[in-house]
Amino acid sequence: MKIFNRFLLFSLFLITSCKTQYVATSNDKQLYKVTSNNQTDTLSDIERYLKPFRDSLNMTMNEVIGEAMGDFIKEKPSGSLGNLVVDAMLADDGSQMTDGRKVSGAITNPGGLRINQIPKGKITKGKIFELLPFENELVIVEVKGTVLKQWMELIKDNGGWPTTGELISPSKILRNYNLDSTYYIATNDYVANGGDNCSFLIPCKKHPTGKTIRELVIAFIKKSKIIIPNKTASFPQIGE
Q1: Is residue 178 part of a domain?
Q2: Domain region containing 128
Q3: CA atoms within 13 A on the CB side of 191
Q4: Residue 132: which CATH number?
Q5: Is residue 25 domain-resident?
Q6: Residue 194 located in a structural domain
Q7: How far is CA 31 from CA 25, 127, 240, in A?
Q8: Cα separation, 127 vs 107, whole angstroms
Q9: 156 domain residue, yes or no
Q10: I need a surface site. Which of 39, 104, 127, 193 has the fewest CB within 10 A?
Q11: Mean pLDDT, 10 residues at a time, over the chain (240 residues)?
């Protein structure tokens, strides 16, 4: 056994002594900085492709189109933000049909306004895209007085919608309006096609304008240059 142990130790000595030992004689370090501009990065090609589009979009969205002299707030029954939108819907050629017939008023649903405030100060085009991100079209709807009454009652039951025009409160519509007469109301295509519980509008005749609510609001602010918040709705005064 002693002879075997000595043989084992001698074998291990031979193995370890014959193994080549490697020692570092120099150390050359080089650091590679990873940045978004690294031209070897695969994403840089995508970035270079998208940059002109991003720059153009930023330039468009950052365009100042007017100035708010106060905060425009989304409120019920007649917040200044909603009033701004319906005033734009009824402005200029939105207030008259192509055949000369008069549009009596403008109505939009509160859910179509996607932000709660436009703060005092410069207004950018991008802010209106935030307010009205959808491609909702301005539509003129022909409604009988009976349907208009039903619409006003719905608005009253919902605590008020943004409305404006030569119309009156729901409580007075029977006394002041001929229920058999036809009235022309500007609204968005979503509501005109029955959205927001307005199924009674589905059978009504509609006149598309080909203009989005958003582009009308942008044009209205550009033309006005300076806009002042107005909380007083000309129609209808809910709860009167």
Answers
A1: yes
A2: 56-227
A3: 22
A4: 3.90.780.10
A5: no
A6: yes
A7: 20, 44, 75
A8: 21
A9: yes
A10: 39
A11: 47 48 55 53 72 75 96 91 93 62 89 96 97 96 92 90 72 62 93 98 95 96 94 48
